[in-house]
Write a structure and sequence with these properties.
seven-stranded mixed sheet; about 190 residues; 7 strands; Rossmann fold; alpha/beta; about 40% helix; single chain; 7 helices
Length: about 190
């Protein structure tokens, strides 16, 4: 990651801390960045852009892999701030933004032929099961689905955990990467 991007990421993280705005931890972001590079992922989908803190981390990895990231945000102010931040990091060609509810964008705006080898779900936690149900058919056979905040907000995702425990198509591992939370990596069983 170049110095300009790292500087902006630090500014965004500091602003988040001052405003008490949740965003993925740097530890988790670095893990996702490395996961994309290690698996040579080329096509990513992110549900929950916010102001693009995670999108910059993911976009940097996809850029290194000559790939592309599609990201979805439902809040117009966050979408607009993300647009500025992606432009400032020169990732606007690597990252395509969609404004709207993820459910609508996935169902009506993404091509039914769209395939992703990396899907990152970091939207409204109570909708995780719905996001997964809509996005998982778009996953390549060897792809990864990653869900953020699976320890701290497990109670908000109980229907998702219940679903995972009652099916045999998907396997998952929870990685407690930082002090207060972790991520889940899901693959086809």
């Amino acid at each position: 990651m170049n110095a300009e991007r790292l500087k902006l990421l630090q500014q965004l993280k500091n602003a988040d801390l001052k405003a008490d705005v949740p965003s993925i931890s740097e530890t988790n972001a670095q893990f996702l960045h490395d996961l994309i590079l290690k698996n040579r992922c080329k096509q990513g989908l992110e549900i929950g852009t916010a102001h693009a803190y995670s999108s910059i981390w993911l976009g940097d990895a996809f850029e290194k892999n000559n790939g592309h990231l599609t990201t979805i945000e439902h809040s117009p102010p966050s979408f607009n701030q993300a647009k500025v931040n992606l432009y400032r990091t020169k990732l606007e060609k690597t990252v395509t933004q969609h404004l709207g509810r993820a459910q609508h964008v996935i169902e009506f705006e993404l091509s039914s032929n769209s395939k992703f080898d990396f899907i990152f779900i970091d939207g409204i936690k109570k909708s995780t099961n719905e996001f997964f149900t809509l996005a998982s058919p778009l996953l390549d056979s060897n792809g990864l689905i990653v869900v953020d905040d699976v320890i701290k907000f497990k109670n908000k995702m109980q229907s998702f955990y219940d679903f995972l425990e009652t099916q045999q198509k998907w396997s998952y591992t929870v990685h407690p990467l930082d002090a207060d939370d972790g991520i889940m990596v899901i693959t086809k069983a």
